[in-house]
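User: Run a structure prediction on this.
Assistant: Running it now.
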Amino acid sequence: MRVYGHRSRIAIYGIVGLLGACGGGGGSGYSTPPPTVTFSSPAQATTINLGQGVKLGWTSSNAMSCSGSMSSSMGGAFSGTQPMSGATTAAPIATGTVTYTVTCMGAGGTGSASTPVVTVNPNVLSTLATIVTIGSTVDPMEGGNNPYGLVIAPATAGLITQGDLVVCNFNDGATMTQGAGTTIVGLHPTPGAKPYRIAQSASLKGCNALTMLPDDSISAAGYSANQNPLVTAAGVVNTPFSSDTLGHPWGEAYAAANGQNPAALYVSNMDGSIDRVALNGDAQSSFTKILTGFCGAGAPGSIYAPAGLTYDPSIDTLYVVDTSSYSVVALANVASIGAGGVTVNGQCPSSNPTYPTPMLTFAGPSATSARVIANGGPLIAPISAALLADGDLIVGNGDIGITSSQMPNLAVEVSPSVPGGFVGQPKQLDTSGIAGALFGIAATTDGQGNQIIYFNDDSSTPTSVMRLSK
């Protein structure tokens, strides 16, 4: 029995000694390591404009919980509990500098990591102050005027030089009747430019919006003709989409082919619908009515309808300016929206209409693709838009029903990233005091990457294209 007891003491001592060697008796052995946190984005110092989002991505190890924080409240929304590995986008709400930090806790303690400094510069529209006149939009032969559609030529072909400004006139020259215009003109983008005739046709009657294909073919919205003609760079007017069921076209956008998605035209109509025309070159391969339900009302000179179609190829998103609800709507993954994919609840007035109409809601199989990114505020019956270099939009007001207390002819910067959508202060582009001067808007950059905006000004004499730049 004494031998057995002796062996038991040896066995117990051996277990205790083993535990001590593992760190239980002096802290020099095994211990749980503290959490580690690593940011994958932004991985280096970032400079953005107000209105852009900051993509944040991080991973952690040995963590049980994590939280986020910012060095300044102007950094947007990134505080409180965060996943142990995650990705999000923060939208700064003011200019300045900010860093983002993730702190994680685990059994071994606490670990954290911070992004490099993010510098937030002023928004694009606030940096543009110089307005110059490019030239008259009056058709040199027929005298049509009241410019609506405006697009920048992507190539040199036929009558058109790359970078030229292509404009369609909503009024005819003979009677100055709104919605009776039948002409498309071009201007070189330099001050003092003279308009040259590109096309005239009854198929263009009421031309109000334009987009261009890579070969300089012009897709035009003929509101009064209820047609969507395709005009060659040589000025030949064709009607390849004449069999499509349109509802008085009121907006145009072109989307180049991307992956499995063919090139396409998007057309909005006064009847509140949006159509996608898939293309094979300049020929139609399919026609799909992807959305219905926006409000459409009024007559030439005071039309409420979805307009200002603007496509962002980097995120396959189509933006729609809704004149009735004073809103800007984003249709994400628009190439994937099928027939009847989105139904808009426009709550359209049937009698004694008042505007703006209520906030839009969406239904249908692709309802989650649609969201309102800006509503009300400085928007007054908005009618036009263009994509800025940083992914924001410039939106022009149509001023239908403007009151004496409201400032006319405002351009507004709208961001899909910032809560509420509005960025900076609006800019008044025409100071004549005559409301409803702004229609088509187009945006580009110069050789140094500086933003340039062109816009049609109906209150100028003669009606003209203007340039807004630094």
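The two ends are 100 Å apart (CA to CA).
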